UniProtKB/TrEMBL annotation, chain A:
Database matches in Pfam families: MoCoBD_1 (PF02738), MoCoBD_2 (PF20256)
Domain of life: Bacteria
Domain spans labelled Aldehyde oxidase/xanthine dehydrogenase a/b hammerhead: 236-314
Gene3D superfamilies (UniProt xref): Aldehyde oxidase/xanthine dehydrogenase, a/b hammerhead, Aldehyde oxidase/xanthine dehydrogenase, molybdopterin binding domain
Protein name listed in UniProt: Isoquinoline 1-oxidoreductase beta subunit
Any GO MF annotation of the entry: oxidoreductase activity
SMART domains to which the protein is assigned, alphabetical: Ald_Xan_dh_C (SM01008)
From TrEMBL, chain B:
Record InterPro entries: 2Fe-2S-bd (IPR002888), 2Fe-2S-bd_dom_sf (IPR036884), 2Fe-2S_ferredoxin-like_sf (IPR036010), 2Fe-2S_ferredoxin-type (IPR001041), 2Fe2S_fd_BS (IPR006058), Beta-grasp_dom_sf (IPR012675), Diverse_Oxidoreductases (IPR051452)
Domain 2Fe-2S ferredoxin-type per the UniProt entry, residue ranges: 1-76
Pfam families per the UniProt record, alphabetical: Fer2 (PF00111), Fer2_2 (PF01799)
Domain of life: Bacteria
UniProt protein name: Isoquinoline 1-oxidoreductase alpha subunit
Species this chain originates from: Roseinatronobacter thiooxidans
Assigned keywords, A-Z: 2Fe-2S, Iron, Iron-sulfur, Metal-binding, Oxidoreductase
Amino acid sequence: MSRLGKITRRTLLVGAVAVAGGAAFGIYQIRKPVTNPLRPEQGASLNPYVIIDQHGISIIAPRAEMGQGVHTTLAALVAEELDADWESVRVLHGPPAAAYFNAALAHGALPVPGYAMQDWQRSVTEGLGAATKLLGLQVTGGSTSTIDGFTRMRMAGASAREALKAVAAERLGVEIGALRTESGQVIAPDGTEIDYRDLAEAAATRPVPQVALRNPDDWKLLGRSLPRSDMRAKVTGQAQFSTDINLDGMKFATVRVCPYLGGGMAGFDPAPALALPGVEQVLDLGDGIAVVASNTWAAMQGAEAVQIDWTPSPLPATTDEMLDQIARAFDTRPNSTMRDQGSPDDLAAQIEVEYRAPFLAHSTMEPMGATALLQDGHLTLWVGNQAPREHAKVAADAAGIAVEDVTLHTVFLGGGFGRRVETDITRQAAALAAMLPQTPIRLTWSREEDMRHDFYRPAAIARMRGAVSDGRAVLFDAKIAAPSVTRAAIGRMIGREMGGPDKGHVEGAFDQPYAIPNYRVAGHLADLDVPIGFWRAVGNSFNGFFHESFIDELAHAAGRDPLQFRLDHVSAESPVAGGVLEAVRDLSGWGAPVPEGVGRGVAMTWSFGTPTAVVIDLEREGGKIRIARAFIACDPGLVLDPAIVRAQMESGLIYGLSAALMGEITFTDGRADQGNFPEYDALRIFNTPRIEVAIVQDNPHMGGVGEPGTPPAMPALANALFALTGQRVRELPLIKHADFLV
Amino acid sequence: MAVTLVVNGTRRETEFAPETPLLWVLRDGFGLTGTKFGCGVAACGACTVHINGEAVRACQIALGDVWGDVTTIEGLSTGDTLAPLQQAWVRHQVAQCGYCQSGQIMQAAQLLAQTPAPTDDEIDAAMAGNLCRCGTYSAIRAAIHDAARALDGRRAG
C-alpha cells in the first residue's frame, strides 16, 4: 500500500471511528481529472468524497468545520444524490489534496460589484476557478464552501450511486434503469436489496458515470434543517480539537515569542524555569522560547519564568502614531478607484467627516494549539486549520522533511474567523517535533500568547464627503486608508506579493447597490507592518461600518427616514437588495412609532454574494444602554439548510456587535495592550439582543452565509445609538463613547 | 506524592503537583479533554466542571484543594444515554464550533439543579461567565428552558 493509503487511513482513524476495510470511489472528473487522494487500505473510495467500508458510508468534507455547519451541508450534498441514510453517514475532513481546491474563491476576484456581475463575468470567474485549482488552494474562507461544493459534491454522490447500480445490475442480470436506491441500498424490481457495502469495491474500479443531477423539487435532505453531523460529539466532549489528541509518552509545551511585534530575542536564561517542578526543557525558537514539560500548566509557568531579553519592535510606539501612519496613505496615489461615477470633484460637500475603525483580534474560543509527532522521519500533525495544504508545506519546511512525509489531520476548529488560515502554530509545532523526535508534543498557547500574536484586523480610516438634494444623495465620495490584508495574508500564503488594485481593501464600500449620481470610492494602501490577516468579513468589516454610517448621515441630512432613504437608492439598482431591506422593515415593524427611551438603527451590506440588512433596537435600562433587539434579513439565494443559515446570521451579527461595542486592540511599543478576555471581551448571554432572522430566497445566485451577518451589525448599532442619543459616533468601539450594558 | 480524586465516579490517582490547576490534571493527566482551556483566568467558563455538584472553573482550583467528587462533561451522560441538558442541546442544535459547549452545559446543569424553572433573567445571571465566540446564546437559552420542561415532566411523571 502506498504512503497515501496509510495517510488516509490515519486520517480516518482520527475521525473516532476506524475504517476497517473500506472503498473509495474511482477517479472523479468534471472537466479535467483530479487524483483521488483517498486510498483506504482494504476498501473502496468511489471519488474524493465517498468512502464505503464495512461500517457504512463516509463522506469527505473538503472544508474545515469551525462552527459554521459546513460538514453537515457539504455531506448532505453528497448524501442527497447517493441516497445515503443521513443518520448513519459519517463525515470526515479530507487530507490536504489538490482535489479539494476551492474554485469558488475566485468568484470574488473580479473587480466588479457582486450584485452587478453579468453572466459572462461569472463564466470568467469559472476560468479563474481553474486558476485557483492550479494554485491548489484548499482554503476554508470567503463564505465559499457551499457555493464551491454545490455542483461538484452532488455529482460525486450521483456518479457513485450510478456506479453502485451498474454493479448491482450486472449481478442481478437486470437493466440498470430498473433499479432504485434508498438508504444505502440498491433495490431491484422484485424487492431484492443489495447493500452498498457489498457493491463498493467493484464499483470503485469502474469509469465514472456522468449523471444528470436531481431536480431540487425531488430533494429529501437539501433545503431542510438537518441534525448536524458534529452535534452529538460536541455536547458530550468527544469532539477532538487541536490539543485533544492523547498519545502515549506525550509531552506538553507552550511558547513565549517576542510580544514586541517585529522584535526578536537577544538572549534568555532558562534556569528559573528549569527549577520548576515538571519543566523539562527550554528550547530556543529564535524569536522566542518553547518550554516542554510534563503538563501544560508546568510549561506555562515555566514560560513565564524564563528570563528573556527581548529586542524592540520597529513599529510606531503608540496606536495614535500607527493611525497617523495610516492617515499618511491619503497623501499617496490611490491603489484603486473601483467606483467612479459622475464628477465628485465638481460638487461641494455638505458633510465632510472622518471615520476610524480599530485593530481587532480574532479571539477564537480555542487558543492556538497543535499536536505533532516526528517518528522515523514522518511528521504527523493534528491541527484545526483553514488551509491544509499550506499548513502541510510549512510543517515540512519547519521539520526539514519533504511534504510527502507529512500527515496532517484537520481536526475541529474551536472558532476560525480567518485566524486559522495562518500557519504560525503549525510551524512551531513541527519545529518542536523535529527537535524532539519520537516524542509526541501537545503545544498549547496561553490566551495571552494568542491575543498578542494575532494577525489582526487592520485599523482603517475613511474620509467621506457627501451631499444631498431633494431628499436624495447626490454625492458619496469616500477615501479609505488601511494596510492591505490581501497583500499581507496572500503574500504569506503564496510567497509573493500581490500587485494591482486591491479589491479586498475597499470591499463593502465600492460594491454596494446604491444609485448615487456622483459616487466614488478610492483605496489608499497604508504602509504599516503590524501583522494583519483575514478577520470575519475582511474589508467589509470596516468598510461596511464606514459606508452605512455615512449613508445614515446623508439620510438624516436629507431629513428622510433612514430605511426608506436606503430603499429609494437601492431598489432600482438591485431589486434583490431592496427586497432584503423590505424584509427587515417588515420583520422589525419599522415605521411604527418608537417608544420613548428606544433608539432604532438600520444598515445593509452586500458581502460574499449575500445582501444582509440589520435593524438594532437600543433601550435605556438603569442608566445604561441595552442592545435589546436585533432583526436580520438576508438573501443568500437558494438555501440548503435554513437552521444553519439562521445560526450563521446570528453568529455573524453577534461577532460584529461584539467588535463594534467593545473590540479594540491597542499597542504600546509594538506590544498589544490587551492579553485576555477581561481586556478584550465580547457579548455574553446577558447583553446579547433577542434576535429574529428572515431569510429571503430571491437572489438568483447562491451567496455565502458565514460572514455577511458581521458587516451590517456594526453600523446598525452605531446608527441606533445616533437615533437614541443624537450622538454620531464615527469611531469604534462605541463603549468609549456611550454607557452600554457590558 | 500521589493525590487521589474521584472523577466521574472513578477513583483516580495522579502524581501532579498539588498546586496544579484541576483543569490540567483532567486534560493532561487523565485524558479527559472534553473540559477546555480558554483563558486561564476564570473569564470564559470553557473549563467548567462540577465538584460535589457545584460548577467551578477548573483553571482556578488547585489539585490539592479539590474538596469533593469531580464531574466533567464526559461524566454527564450515562452510557449512550445523554443527560436531559445534552438532549436539549441536540434538539436545539446549539453547538457551532463547540469549544465552549462543555462548559456551557456544565454551568447550565448547576443552574437547573438549583433553579428547576429558571426565568430568562436567571439564565442570564447564571450563564454570564460563559463566553461563546460563535454567538450561540439564543439557542443556549432555548435549550435550558427546554431541558427544564423535560426535567419537570420527568419529576411529574
